[in-house]
Design goal:
Order of helices and strands: HHHHHHHHHHHH
Shape: elongated
Number of helices: 12
Helix content: over 70%
Radius of gyration: 22 Å
Largest sheet: none
Number of domains: 2
């Protein structure tokens, strides 16, 4: 029993040392009121290696929290110097590593892709995070709705954006979101998805005005196809 207590104490000390080290690294750059220097910024940007979750001695949640704080700090610095900061991929990798350390930590999925695409125009890791969100937060309509806007306006994947809007609406998003899905289904010629959506409209109780608008968009696509 004493051996187990000692081992646990050792792991606790190691975990705290790791967390404190990350805090020091993450706050070091904020204390310098100098002009942006990408070399120094890159040196202060710590991205943990792959599989780090296997070497955290049970402190992966704590380390994920610290890395999330560092991510926000570095994102703010980089976005304010977007013309000379070329480290958006590193920040994307950091965000991915946070989700590996703490797969059920919601904030990186809910806000991370939006931050990367809107502030840094980083698309690769945004898509990876959204794909992981489908697995760990399959019933969170806000994540799917935000993901749909990213896919539509930043990445340009209309088909996947339509599926995300549709799923968000089914999970509890405002009912007019069905109309967004219907519009994209029409534009992309997604016939099977259109039929599924029409069946869904027959099953759920929607206000007639919204239902009529959705059906009009679906019918307009069929008219275009026939022409």
């Amino acid at each position: 029993m004493k051996i187990l207590v000692r081992l646990f104490s050792s792991y606790s000390i190691i975990g705290l040392i790791l967390a404190i080290s990350l805090i020091i690294i993450s706050t070091d750059h904020l204390n310098k009121k100098t002009k942006f220097n990408e070399i120094k910024f890159q040196a202060s940007l710590y991205v943990p290696p792959q599989k780090i979750e296997k070497f955290t001695f049970g402190f992966q949640e704590l380390i994920a929290d610290v890395l999330w704080i560092q991510f926000i700090q570095k994102l703010s610095i980089c976005s304010n110097n977007i013309k000379i900061c070329t480290l958006s991929d590193k920040l994307g990798e950091m965000l991915l590593r946070i989700t590996e350390l703490s797969p059920r930590f919601r904030m990186p999925y809910a806000l991370g892709p939006l931050m990367l695409t809107f502030l840094l125009d980083e698309k690769k890791y945004s898509q990876m995070i959204l794909t992981k969100a489908e697995l760990y937060f399959p019933n969170d309509w806000t994540i799917f709705y935000r993901g749909a806007t990213i896919l539509l306006y930043d990445i340009g994947d209309k088909k996947k954006a339509a599926l995300y809007f549709d799923k968000a609406a089914r999970l509890g998003a405002p009912q007019w979101v069905f109309a967004l899905a219907a519009k994209l289904y029409s534009e992309e010629g997604m016939v099977v998805e259109q039929q599924n959506l029409i069946q869904t409209l027959d099953e759920i109780k929607l206000p007639e005005e919204i239902k009529h608008r959705i059906l009009l968009r679906l019918k307009s696509s069929k008219l275009k196809d026939s022409n």
